Amino acid sequence: MCADNRLPRGGTVWHAFSVYSGSVRLRLRPVPTPEDEEADVIERRRGTVWDDWGLLSYLILSYRRVRRLARRWWWLPGWAFAAVTQLPALLAVAWLVPAAAMLLAGRLLPLPMMIIFVPLAVALCYFALRRIPVRWPRFGDKDAPTGALVAVGAGMPAARRGGVPLGALLATVGIAAGFGVWQAFFGSQQVFAVGDPSVYLQYGYWIAEHGTARIPSSASAFGSVGGLVFASPGYFVPGVSITPSFLPGLPLVLAGGTWIGGIGGALLMPAVLGGSAVLSFGGLVGRLAGPRWAPVGALVLAVSLPELYVSRAPFGEPLVQVLLFGGLCLFIDSLGVRGGLLGGGLTLAGLGGLALGLTVLVDIGSLSTLLPAFPVLGLLFVARRPQAGPFGIGLFVGIGIGLWAGMALARSYLSTVSTELHVFGLCAAGFGVATALVAPLALPGARDRVRRAFRGRAHLVGLDGDVVSLPSLSSVVQWVGFALPVLALIGLAIRPYLQTVRGQTDPTLIRAVASLQRVAGLPVDGRRQYYEQSLNWVLWYLGVPAVLLACAGAAALARRLVRTVLPPGPSASAVPSASAVPSVEGRSSKVAARLWVLPFLMIAWSVATVLWDPAVAPWQPWASHRLVPLVLPGMVLLGVWVSSRLTARAVVLGASRWTVVLVGFCCVLALAVPPLVTSVNPGLVAKTSIGEHSSGLSKLVSRVRLRGVGASSVYDGSVAAASSLCTSIGTSASVVFVSAATAAEFAPVVRDLCGQPTASLAAGSLSSAAVEQVVTAIERTGRRPVLLGPSKSGLSFFGVVPRRVVSLRTSGDPEVLAGPPAGPWPVSYTLWMASPLASALRSQASVGSSGAWNG
């Protein structure tokens, strides 16, 4: 439905187009232009031209048709850009909400899940994508943010200038798709390794097969014998069942992959989530820095090593990014759309808050990331924005779902992070106070009094009688906001010279850090946490230019945002004009500042808290996953925004087109090249792999090798080895590990993937008598005892001939303390199996083979 249709002088039809695509439904055919008439002539003479020029005529005709369609449907690329970057978050919300409810009920089944998911996803997409913006205001944008009168016959040049170029849309989607394909090709089969990915994978496989998060310990399968341990790293045994030590957000998505393609389908989901995260981030960059810079932001994030690392194995960070970036996109779009409850800004605001809140269902640490949303919510209520209510409701509902699932399914895990939750409570109290201070501004005269207080300028009389005007409080706050990012960067840069962070208390981590220090030739201090090096971690993965650009962007944005909220008062020499009206550029900059408030506060808070206390094991690239949700993307976003402003400034200063292109190209290289080099670690081999008669360039290219973690697959062959292990164990088996270290690597695989009861011998009961007692108890239950150990000699002690069931040599993730990882490390997995009988053990004991355990 076209708004404000009228017939001006000259008979040309004009339309007032709003920024959201729901208003763009043209009913009138546009006035033909000379180009259209020329295309019609060519089309009428197509037979003659086709005979004379063949394919060239067809290409020219197709190009002209595309240009005509582009003029008529100028808003379509912008609508498609907004829709495709919102879509991952909408699908994630439609999947996680019913899946979490069904898992809490212990009835997660594929058919009911699909019956609920498909209609819900269609409904969410319909109501969210009905009316969405096709362009977004930017700082210094001279196009009106809420619409402009556009002559259809003139081709709508103003709208096209403010819209999304088709090339930017295709490039952003192409980069995200290419990233997903790359990650699928270099995927990680982290099945045996001890860590978050293997636990997530087995968790997702278990709930896909059984529909519940409770894993029975099956103690009855081992008889009434004692001295058995059912817990393993990543799992807790709070009672008669075993619970994984993570929230169920990512496992619910992995369960969907398992239903589609088994364990292989689950291992492909990280690549899908990673590509979706890059796409959503490109949408956020396009909304805040300009659509033409969306591919740049997506590219820089895609080539960074931490993003590559977490998107090829089951990590929760890519799913957090999908919900976080998609939620911010939905919230930003809601501020530019007017409409009712369904199909308008209120719907977008509610879905944006729900997507942001559901990040807690994936990672409990997202509670800290969401804290800045509460003061922003207070500001929305103060400003009487209609989006405040739906956004707040959606945010609290999403957080409530995450906390409910955590308390019901992962209470033991939450108890292990109680210290972090206490710190979060203190931070939440601080943000609550800030929100409470914002609330009085809703009173009629409070805002005016506060504005006058910040605009007022104090005057002092000097010794010589001259009156000196002091800066207003608003100006002081602006320059404080400008200086804080610079001072923070300087403080983090000099922190390693002033502080050495120690405080590790976990004995396992202390031994691991000390071992890595010995390997690297560093001073051995297992209690050291290396948190003072957090800025160096960012420099390793993004490079110095990106960090400097991000700091400049944070400083400039902080000053702009404060200036928008608290504009400075007029100078003493300023004489206001009665006929003065706010400029279009000023209105556009104010709207752009409103769009930036929530993303900027979340980025600033996350960067400050994570870099000060990463709360993670310090070896790389493992520690880099703490930077993935918002620290690295936030810095990339700020760096890209500064680059866009530099090119815009070059245009304002009258620079030539090629100069502007050169400035933009240099910014792209500065942002993309350092992380790319760190990720792929290119190098040259001594000999070429082609013939001696090839060209010099071909020989040089053939010598290039990509040795980095980003261009290497890890843990290959693990799925096949796990399948062979399950086949070797068979059915109706009760599996006992004779080594705690071996149980840590293989017990979850046997229990979750093979579906057999699993336990390990306690540390104080490793003797042949204890093993005989366990085997006898298992046989009495009617099951078959299976012993697993790390070596042949360890199992030969029981008078049976063991056989090797796992022998895998592959590459794995490196563990580096003093720099970025240069490439994967070799790893190997070996497992031996024996199926003894109690009678054989008793006969072996009768000849004097009992005694202390020597395995």
Helix content: 55-70%
Which sheet architecture does the biggest sheet show?
6 strands, mixed
Query: How many whole angstroms does the radius of gyration measure?
Result: 31 Å
Q: What is the overall pLDDT average?
A: 81
Please indicate the percent range of residues in DSSP E strands (runs of 2 or more).
5-15%
| SSE class | alpha+beta
Structure annotation, total helices: 33
Shape: globular
Order the strands across the largest sheet as they lie in space: 5-13-12-14-16-15
Q: Which parts are unreliable, with pLDDT below 50 for 5 consecutive residues or more?
A: 1-28, 46-51, 143-161, 571-585, 847-855
Count of DSSP E strands? Answer: 16
Separation, N- and C-terminal Cα atoms: 79 Å
Give an overview of the whole structure.
This protein is of the alpha+beta class. 58% of the residues lie in helices and 8% in strands. The chain is built from 33 helices and 16 strands. It has a six-stranded mixed beta sheet. A three-stranded antiparallel beta sheet has the order 1-2-3.
Report a brief summary of the structure.
The chain is an alpha+beta fold and 855 residues long.
List the topology elements.
Blueprint: E1 3-6, E2 14-17, H1 34-44, H2 46-53, H3 55-72, H4 76-104, H5 110-129, E3 148-151, H6 157-162, H7 166-185, H8 196-210, E4 215-216, E5 228-229, E6 235-236, E7 241-244, H9 249-289, H10 294-303, H11 305-310, H12 317-334, H13 345-357, H14 359-362, H15 366-369, H16 373-382, H17 388-409, H18 411-416, H19 418-438, H20 446-455, E8 459-461, E9 467-469, H21 473-498, H22 507-520, H23 534-542, H24 544-565, H25 584-612, H26 631-652, H27 657-680, E10 682-684, H28 696-703, E11 704-706, H29 718-729, E12 733-737, H30 740-753, E13 758-761, H31 768-780, E14 784-789, H32 792-796, E15 803-812, E16 825-834, H33 838-846
Helix pairs in contact: 1-3, 2-3, 4-5, 4-9, 4-12, 7-9, 7-10, 8-9, 8-30, 9-10, 9-12, 9-26, 10-26, 10-27, 12-13, 13-17, 16-17, 16-19, 21-24, 23-24, 24-25, 24-26, 25-26, 26-27, 31-33
